[in-house]
Amino acid sequence: MEPEPQTTQTNLHILPQSSYIDSLRFLPPISAFSRHIAVASFNSDTSIPSLTLHSLTTTPTLTPITSFTPSSRITSLKTTQSLIAASTVTGSVHILFPNLINGTFESEVNVPDNVLHSGRVSGLDVLESGGECVSVGEDGRVNVISVGEDGRVDYRKVFDGKGLVSFTAVKWASQMEFVTGGFGNCVQWWDVRRAGGPVSQFKGNWAQGATSGIIHSIDIHPSRKHTCLAGGSYGTVFAWDLRRPQQPIVLSGIDNGETAACISESDVWEVHYDTFMSASDHAKLSSKGVLPAMICSEDGILAVLKQGEEPTELLAENCAINCFDIDPHNPSDVICGLEWESIALLTRA
Fold it and tell me: Which string of b and e fits 158-192 if b means at least 16 CB within 10 Å?
């Protein structure tokens, strides 16, 4: 019998929406009393996608202040200090420059459908230090996109799998390196200075048929760029360390001889390092190889995973939790997109 997950004290608000939530992200605050959230949504009745900038109050309420209509449904959404980037199911990429004081999108740069990818862009990430984006697709292409100060867009193909491989997630590790994930629980490390393919690769070799799994999400901690966090099918969550590239550190969901609690047996849709830690957590870090991680899943679980400990359940819903984001400036706050057209706002004590 599996042990029950631990729980933590939270303050939860559920805000119903009029559309399906595909993705959401915090934006950098412009003051202590003003926060904004970018929300990618899809209206199933009209088949119209939308990217909306919301103001988040302490009440809490979400107030839409401006909106943008992308070319098609959004597949990936990223935000930095200066821009919002979104990719779509038809292969386009939209880069928006918000003015949070005026509550507007000052300008936008678009890469049309089927220029970067043939069909769906499955993953997108943006460098925090600049305007460079990396995109991956189910067509097996990997591209780097650069946006100049004049609004000009340059892009170059890093790799073209010509449909023989497929990528589902991507994350920058440095200005020259990024990590991709795909089918078969495979993870690849790339260096843009070295052409031809990834410089290192981990191929999943899990028991119980899990080699058919898919990596849905990747994260890399700014202070430990040699280690990436991956989440995918069958509740899979593991860390991949370049120093030991064929020895994944299993946090949840895989039975291959590793000892790890299984918080979910369904797809893990998103995974992030969790920067909200108590004093006791900080004291344990020196003895832990993997920093705490937060995941959301198809069976409605939002939880924190810590290496060698039982998972801490933050939220258990009767529907899928498709996406979430942790406020980087106030990590006690988390936003989630629920399958039942709602946004959950959660604050940890």
Answer: bbebeeebbbbbbbbbeeebbbbbbbbbbbbbbeb
